[in-house]
Amino acid sequence: MELKNDLILRAAAGEPTERTPVWLMRQAGRILPEYRAVRSSVSGFKELVETPELASEVTIQPVDILGVDAAIIFSDILVVPEAMGCTYEMIEQRGPIFPQTIQTPDDVKNLRVEEAHFQLHYVYEAIRITKRALNGRVPLIGFAGAPWTILAYMVEGSGSKTFSKARKLLYTSPELAHTLLDKITTVTINYLQAQVDAGAAMLQIFDSWAGILPPAHYHEFSTRYIARICDAITTVPVTVFAKGAFFALSEFAQLDCQTIGLDWNMNIADSRAAIGFNKTLQGNLDPCALYGSFDNIRQETIAMLQAFGPTRHIANLGHGVYPDTDPDKVKCFVDTIKEYSSKINEPQSVT
Questions:
Q1: What residues act catalytically?
Q2: Residue 347 has pLDDT above 60, yes or no
Q3: Binding site membership for substrate: which residues?
Q4: Among 35, 60, 220, 339, which residue's Cβ finds the most Cβ atoms within 10 Å?
């Protein structure tokens, strides 16, 4: 099926684009009343994730409503530990909770690995349905959590400001941590490849808790496993988004991926200097900028575009869009990128 809009894929490859492509992390979510209507028709978040037809419907909504240049499949990074046998509950206003955490070598030994990704058939079916429904309008992005972030939830048992239980494991039982990370990585590679087989045209690895590790631990317990995933996925572009990992940008330059996502605290010029021009950068407007006036949003967005320049850039926020953001403000961000970048983009590529 021929893509009518392949801007994001060309930008990831460093090819010329008529304008800067744009999408948003968490674009399929609570900012849209249309999403809330679908969500209210089911028992909760997990049922929505596990119902392919509904997951597809909310995946496509931001393409129709916001005019973004890519869809990202509606799912959650925590489907991977669940497929491995470490189940979670999504508690309203509180987030994910794991009734049973990973604490001992036996806990790790008992996890599913080789067959685990088959448990996630509902994600692949949602991708297939969405790919057909999009009919080539925009590419579909698949995703997974980075192994360190998945370990953090499996050991901690919930979200945390410090993830002290997970970080403690790295000091007290590093070999056990590596065994767990190895298993998560194997499952994640199989899962992402199955997403590609189902129709995902691009993948993103989310390392949401990268920034809580010291640099030496991040190198040992995260980057090496992200590198394994990047090495294994060879048929579609891969983006690595590691929130807070400003200290690892020069390491990311060595990854076999096409795009590096920046959070809103990462300086654009410094990041480009660390990563070089062989990779595309994604980001990185502060999500809170979308609480400002329409004029302020336009000014901040244009400043971001000027800082990145017209090549090797995929516009996005520096994290997921916050759930109480006005959809009209999000639309202003998207429209400003389209209008401004179409005037300044030059038909050349920096490689």
A1: 26, 30, 39, 76, 153
A2: no
A3: 26-30, 76, 153, 208, 319
A4: 35
